[in-house]
Amino acid sequence: MTDVKASDPSNVTGYRSFELGSFKFKRDEYFVNITWKTKDGEITHYMSADVFLRALMRDVAWNFFYLQINFDTVFGTNNLYGTVEMFAGSYNEAYTEAGLNLTETFETPEILATFKAMLDDWTNAGFDPFAAPEETGTAWLGRKNGNNRTAINRERQVCKRMVGLNGDTPQRTDENGHPVNRAFEDVPQDEPEVHAEAGFESEIGAINLFAYLSRSDVTWNPSISSICKSSLCCPTTEEYSLPIKHGNDRVEWFLQLSDEIKWEVEDLETGKPRAKVIMKPGDVAAMPADIRHQGFSAKRAMLMVWENTNPDIVEMHSSGKLNPWPVDF
Ligand code: PHB
Ligand code: FE
User: Which residue, by CA, sits nearest to atom 7 of ligand 1?
Assistant: First the structure.
């Protein structure tokens, strides 16, 4: 059992405050305050509570993801796969040059328990951190008002082999709570015909991936729709902005399936701008292993994220055996 250091609810706002290592977390009507110790005394960083909760939701649901989740330009986590570093200012040149940054390391269950407790206490009824802002509104703000455990405890959809196969993650339907999203009413819902040779019925399958994605009820939350060894197809639907800046320890590929997403690409260590990428349907891009990136999508868009889960690849990049880019032309 992992202890969570939480205060009693505030008499004024109703929210609890939390501590982890030498970091302190407090939320009020609009903001989350993150306080840490520096050589010059304590420093406090402010984030809008909705921005913080959207990032926290992903950090928790993705079990700290591949390497780095930046909540913004200051605060975030590094997944070391067993332990997690929590940092403030450590990947921001202004903070590191002034010596005002702090990184502390925790066992994964310890930081996860604190993050889950914070997410649970600070998410009000009616606010879904995975939903597009237009679909969840402003219930995040104000004093404490109930909770939204159904939304924050949603299981990420992860298939064993492929969506739609016998015994695997089912297709999304009206009946299982996945109506077509308002942005994708024009997406055809017909399914491919599969004629398997007798005896191979469980070995072959096909789905209409566009129909599957048109029924996603979340944004910026890749589900895993097919797996082959270390190769993961993680399609997702995107609206508004990716609530984190993701700093990677491997290459990942993006295939734009519909609409348009703009990406900002920055240096992993310093956050200095590196590139802007505008992706239109059919465009393919590889995000290098030494950057952080954030996406922006004015209209809900479909994106295929292609991930490599091979754990050996981290060392191959950090030792320089592999270039941070995947191909030379
Ligand atoms: C990413 O960091 O690469 C990422 C995360 C979530 C998404 C899309 C891309 O929905
Ligand atoms: Fe990424």
Answer: 220
pLDDT of 68-110, one tens digit each? 999 999 999 999 999 999 999 999 999 999 999 999 999 999 9
Instruction: Please give the distance, rounded to the nearest whole angstrom, from the Cα atom of residue 242 to the centre of ligand 1.
Output: 7
Centre of ligand 2 from the C-alpha of residue 65, in Å: 9
Residue 1's H or E segment, with its range, is none
Beta pairing, strands 261-267 & 291-308: antiparallel
What b/e readout covers 59-91, taking b as 16+ CB neighbours within 10 angstroms?
bbbbebbbbbbbbbbbbbbbbeeeebbbbbbbb
Q: Does residue 168 contact residue 162 with C-beta atoms inside 8 Å? A: yes
Whole-model pTM over 0.85: yes
Residue with the two structure tokens 């029924």:
215
Residue 248 CA: which ligand is closest? 2
What whole-number distance in Å separates Cα of residue 129 and Cα of residue 267?
A: 27
For residue 159, the CA-to-ligand 1 centroid distance in Å is 18
